[in-house]
Amino acid sequence: MSRRGWLLFAAPAAALFLAFWLLPMAGLALAGARPVDGQSAYLAVLGSPRYWRSLFNTAALSLGATLATLLVALPVGRFLAWRRDFPGRRALVAMLMFPLAFPGVVVGFLIILLAGRQGVLGTVTQWLTGEPWVFAYSMGGLFLGYLYFSLPRAIGVVSAAAEQIDASLLEAARTLGAPAWRRFLDIELPALAPALIGAGAMSFATSMGAFGTVFTLATRIDVLPMTIYNEFTNYANIPVAAALSIVLGLVTWVVLYVAHSLAGSRAGAGA
Amino acid sequence: MSTLHSKADMRLGLIATLAVAAFLVGPVILSILAGLTRNYFVGLSSGLTLRWVEQVWTLYADTIWRSIAVAVSTLIVCTLVGVPAAWVLTLYRGRAARALEELLTLPVAVPGLASALALIVSWGTLPGFRSSTAFIVIGHVLFTLPFMVRATRASMAGAGLAALDEAAATLGASRMRRFLTVVAPNAAPGILTGALTVLTLSIGEFNLTWLLHTPLTKTLPVGLADSYASMRLEVASAYTLVFLLMLMPLLVGLQWLAKAAARPRGGDAPNDDTP
Questions:
Q1: Which of A3, A157, B64, B194 is deepest in the core (most CB within 10 A)?
Q2: How far apart are CA A128 and CA A132, in angstroms?
Q3: If you average pLDDT over residues A66-73, what whole number do you get?
Q4: Cα–Cα distance between A108 and A214 in angstroms, integer?
Q5: pLDDT, averaged across chain A
Q6: What is the pLDDT of residue A265?
Q7: pLDDT tens readout for residues A116-136
Q8: Range A182-204 average pLDDT
Q9: Size of interface A-B (CB pairs under 8 A)
């Protein structure tokens, strides 16, 4: 009970959060209910194929990038977990984790250097085939960008989980005659599932809300963050921008929440 | 030694790892080279130069200083607000505390664009506030606070700090005194990790800042976006290089702290690790 008095110490954080996030968010939700052309902006958004397409594009692209991220992170994470000691490992891991700190704009620029008009891929393909291969300013470039900023975190999470796998289980399975693919499917994959779900959700959520990368690559790409930005700056259509933001925020939050409880119950079942 | 994993598995892992490393690091190297080359079109044969970096300095020095100021202000607010909150969340594990912790992480889960719009809709009309750097700092605090709280809490939980604090209380020390002389010093490693994370995130924050900034309050990432859109590739690359150089010490510090935390407590004896 003497602890009671400590509660006041959390008051500044709570007040700051309330005043500058929770109440403004509620205000934004209300702003989305303001009428546009005679109906609430939410209804206008939900009834318009244009916004649905934007949402679909965003979700499909994010999902694709997430699956690709997990597919690539899995062998890399396992490799780093098995090989804990080789010359240059520390430098390699540092290199893999370095891009974690890059903002979306920088990632976009790096993709341009890779696949843009003056990019390496363009130069190499021009030299090989006479036709430069340039795809940075389209959905393909965006996909690569999402992969770029999702991979480091996913690799970190997967390799940490793979390090925790009890080698004696694998040993026992091998003694019992299980081939490598059975050991992977029956032992490794279930053990890695919570990590994969967590990393996947993180990658999906980040991709859904990523704005800097699209902004650098091409303002014409039709994904939801760009649509929100255009509604807000170019058309000063605050109700629609607000309604779309609330929809995007809800979708992202729900995905993270579901993944969190899913991974949590999995981990609980495994223990 | 580990015949547990098939040779094919190992080979696939090695190839994937090298490919990913090339994909992640390759463009960074290209960017560094482009920022230092006289003419990127012609290639390295045109010679190396610091001309572009100088040009970045004359064009964008104000954004660099502003980003540092914003990051430091964000850190001060996060420390003053986040460390006490972390202590409360360490002591209370009830439902209300859990809820507060979940709530505080919402600005990270929800896209920055939405948070920024909410801030503008509610506070944007306040004269003087909208056009000040403080407006950006508020956005950054919301986004970075959860990281400060989490890192600080991690080092408060393990140290048997609650018992220490109770001992100090029986000796008659006031709450504020206990917090400043017992709790905070013992959580120093976590606070330091949180501080470096906050600085790193703030210096690179774009999603919120792009909507919150005004022409007079441009930060480094805002300037970067501007240079990507309107400057020649060499200048944009040199600017990116400056950004990476600012990030470097923070990241090295974080890695060093993580390694120190992995060692058992009190392992301060001189070790073979060089920072």
A1: B194
A2: 9
A3: 96
A4: 7
A5: 87
A6: 67
A7: 888 888 888 888 888 888 888
A8: 90
A9: 240
Q: How many helices (H) and strands (E) does chain A have?
A: 14, 2
* Mean local confidence (pLDDT), B193-208: 93
**CA–CA distance, A22 with A18 (Å, rounded to integer):** 5
Contact assignment for A79 to B10 by CB distance below 8 Å: yes
Question: Within 13 Å of residue B170, how many CA atoms lie on the same side as its CB?
Answer: 5
Q: Does A3 touch chain B (CB under 8 A)?
A: yes
Estimate the share of chain B in helix, then strand, then coil, as percent rounded to the nearest 5: 75, 0, 25
Contact B145, B104 (CB under 8 A): yes
Per CB-CB distance under 8 Å, the chain B contacts of A229 are 113, 211
Are residues B2 and A171, on separate chains, in Cβ contact within 8 Å? no
Residue A87 and residue A93 in contact, taking contact as beta carbons nearer than 8 Å: no
**pTM (2 decimals)?**
0.88
Taken in order B120, B123, B126, B129, the sign of the CA dihedral is negative
Q: Taking a C-beta distance cutoff of 8 angstroms, is the pair B140, B220 a contact?
A: no
Query: What is the Cβ-side half-sphere exposure of residue A146, based on CA atoms within 13 angstroms?
Result: 32
What mean pLDDT is predicted for residues B99-108? 88
Q: φ, ψ for residue B45 (rounded to 5)?
A: -65, -15
Q: Are B37 and B48 in contact (CB under 8 A)?
A: yes
- A17: chain B residues, CB-CB within 8 Å: 103-104, 142, 145
Query: What pLDDT is attached to residue A267?
Result: 52
What's phi and psi for B177, nearest 5 deg?
-65, -45
Q: Does B30 sit within 8 Å of A113, measured CB to CB?
A: yes
| Predicted local distance difference test score (pLDDT) of residue A3 | 65
Tell me the chain B residues in contact with residue A112 when contact means C-beta distances shorter than 8 Å: 228
Q: Per-residue confidence at B110, pLDDT binned at 50, 70, 90?
A: confident
d(C-alpha B237, C-alpha B29), whole Å: 10
